[in-house]
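seq:
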Amino acid sequence: MALTNGQAWAVLVVAGVFEIVWALGLKYSDGFSKWLPSIVVVVAAAASFWLLALAMRVLPAGTAYAVWTGIGAAGTALLGVALLGEPATAVRFGCIALIVAGVLGLKFAGAQ
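struct:
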């Protein structure tokens, strides 16, 4: 399947969303002791890796990987606050903003 540059970026964003799903699923799986969240983790991780690999056919590997992990890190941190009661501090949100700035910087700084 040949992707355009724009399609590759869209696929990469979806891969990042699946990364958020499997990362949060790890918390809910309770060390893989709960079946349904454990299945969600495995399926979401497989989808995330497959979509990342697909996007890397078009996008530079370093950029794609950094954006993918940035989406996962920022999204998981935000949902940790919203769903898991993790601290909602200014420092935490500032650091998340730095991750987002880095991801956007990689996207717009000439990386295809």
